[in-house]
UniProtKB/TrEMBL annotation:
Residues 5-75 form the MIP18 family-like domain. Pfam families: FeS_assembly_P (PF01883). This is MIP18 family-like domain-containing protein. PANTHER family: FE-S PROTEIN MATURATION AUXILIARY FACTOR YITW (PTHR42831).
Length: 100
């Protein structure tokens, strides 16, 4: 059976093409739930009008589905709560020049 840690590692391979940072460190992933062999990912975007939503759904689905034991992947978008830079990892903030 696939673990949450394995899924998160695959999600770290999903890179935002505009920022060059993975979606986990950007704070876009809100939850990963595994039910039997199905993985459900709850995520957000930096803004509701971000045109990369379908790109991320495809990338996440492809990468997570490559894990042994995963039969299906669903990706749900939410904007509640809205994304903010406080959700980013310290490394991502430093890379993008955010000042504390």
């Amino acid at each position: 059976m696939v673990t949450q840690e394995q899924v998160v590692e695959k999600l770290k391979a999903c890179i935002d093409p505009e920022l060059g940072i993975n979606i986990v460190d950007l704070g876009l992933i809100y939850a990963v739930n595994i039910e039997d062999s199905r993985v459900n990912v709850l995520m957000t975007m930096t803004t509701p009008g971000c045109p990369l939503d379908s790109y991320f759904v495809k990338d996440i689905t492809t990468k997570v589905k490559s894990l042994k034991g995963v039969s299906g992947v669903s990706v749900e978008m939410t904007f509640d709560p809205p994304w903010s830079s406080t959700k980013m990892s310290d490394e991502s903030k430093e890379f993008l020049g955010f000042v504390n």
